[in-house]
Amino acid sequence: MDTPQFDAFEAFLQSRPEVESASKIAGEGCYHVVLACAEPVELEAFTQALQHYGRYKVASEMRRVKE
Length: 67
Known about the structure:
Strand content: 15-25%
Order of helices and strands: HEEH
Shape: globular
Number of strands: 2
Mean pLDDT: 89
Helix content: 25-40%
Number of helices: 2
Strand order of the largest sheet: 1-2
Structural class: alpha+beta
Largest sheet: 2 strands, antiparallel
């Protein structure tokens, strides 16, 4: 069984300039990460690197309704 790599994962998030924010959460999932990518290839590169730490889901913002 794989052991959680929370410290390593959080260091990974800290090292990535495209990560705008990252929060440890309760509920479905362990983290909520906000990424700013100019091109789809940047998202692909991030998710490829992310696979080392576990599973993920991607959701895209359609329209911000409040700042």
